[in-house]
Amino acid sequence: MRVAVVGGGVVGLSTTAALLQRGVDVVCYEQAGEPMAQRSAGSSRIFRLAHALPDLVRLAAVARAGFGRWESASRTSLIGRSGCVISGEQMPVWAAAMAAAGAAHEVVDGASDGLRLPARTPPSEALLDPVGGVIDVDAVRAHLTELTRGAVLRAQAYALEDSRGGATVWSSAGEARFDAVLLAAGAGTSPLAAQVGIYTPPALAHHVRFTFPFDSPVAWQCWIDTPSTDLGTYQHQTGPGSWAVGGHLDPALTAWEVGREAATTASRDAVLAYARRHLAVEPRIVDSLYCVTTPDLGDGFEFRRNGPILAVYGENLFKFAPLLGDVLAAACVDGSTPAVPDVALNY
Ligand SMILES: Cc1cc2nc3c(=O)[nH]c(=O)nc-3n(C[C@H](O)[C@H](O)[C@H](O)COP(=O)(O)OP(=O)(O)OC[C@H]3O[C@@H](n4cnc5c(N)ncnc54)[C@H](O)[C@@H]3O)c2cc1C
C-alpha cells in the first residue's frame, strides 16, 4: 500500500511514523525547509488532561500513554511534571469533565500549597491537573524526525484528484499516485480538501504568544486562566526565568481580515495589560511566537473523508499527536473515517 501524507507538522509526522511502523510505503509532503515549522513551531506547548468534555479528557490520557512510549523509545523526557492549573469561569465545567472521565484532579482554594503560579493574587479557586506539564517540542521534533527519516519529501502539494480507486497528488516534485492520501496540512488543509469535495472550516485567524522574564527559582505550573469574558490565557514556563502567555481575545480583534500587524498589536496590548495587572513577571516582552489558527474550533479534532482522501483538522492538537498518529494511520490503511466519540471509547 502507498500513502501520501500532506503536511509535515506534528500531526503529519506522527501519522507518517505510525504508517512506517505498520510497514506502509509513505511519502510525507512538506513544503517548508524543515518539518514542524508552522503551527507546530517553537520549543514548548502545554500538555493537559483537563478539557471541557469527558471524551477529550479520556483521549488526552491515551495520548499521554503514547508520549510515554515515545519517551521510552527515544530515552528522553518529552513532558515535564509541573502539573497544570485551570482557573476562571470555565473551571467548574472542566472539573466536572475530569470527574466524569475518572481522571485524577483536585479543586483547591487560592491559599492551597498545591498552587505554584506567578500570580500577584492567586485565583479564589482552581482545578489542579497533576498529569499536565510542558511538552518539550524540540525533543518531540527530534524524535519524529528520526522516526520519519527518508519519508519526508520537501515539496508543496498543489492539486489532488480522486481517480481510479486511488488518488493523484501533483506537487512541486511532480505527479504521483497513491492508494490513500491524508491531508494534515494545518492552515493548508482547507483549500486542498475543497478540491476533492471535502469541507473543513476555511476561516483563519492570527494568534500570538508572548514571553516575559521572571526572577524565581520555582518551577511554576502551566496555567489556563480566564480572567474575564474578553480574555482567555494559556501560560507556561518555557525555560528558567521565562514565562509565555498566549491570549485568546475577542475573535473580531484577531480575525484574518484584520491583518497580522493589527492582530499582533491587539494581542500584545491585551497580554501586556494582563501581565501588568495579574502576573509576578517583568512586564517586558522578550520573545513572541506567531501562528495562523482556525478560529472557533477550541480544543479537539475532526476527520472528514471522500473516497481515498481523508482530512483532519482541529485546534490545540499537539497534546494529542501520538494518538492522532495511530488513529489516522489505521484509518489510512483500512479506509475508515474515525468518529471522535468512537475513538474515545475504543482506546
Ligand atoms: C503559539 C501556539 C501555542 C499553542 N499551544 C498549544 C498547547 O499549549 N497545547 C497544544 O496541544 N497545542 C497548542 N498549540 C496548537 C498546536 O501546536 C497545533 O494544533 C499543532 O501543532 C498543529 O499541528 P499540525 O500538524 O496540524 O499543523 P502544522 O504544524 O501547521 O503542520 C502543517 C504542515 O503542513 C505544511 N503544508 C501546508 N500546506 C502544504 C502543502 N500544500 N504541501 C506541503 N506541505 C504543506 C506546512 O508547511 C506545515 O508544516 C499551539 C499553537 C501555537 C502556534
TrEMBL record:
Cofactor: FAD
Protein biosynthesis recorded as keyword: no
Entry keyword Flavoprotein: yes
Positions of the FAD dependent oxidoreductase domain: 2-330
One matching Pfam family: DAO
Alphabetically ordered keywords of this record: FAD, Flavoprotein, Oxidoreductase
Name of protein: FAD-binding oxidoreductase
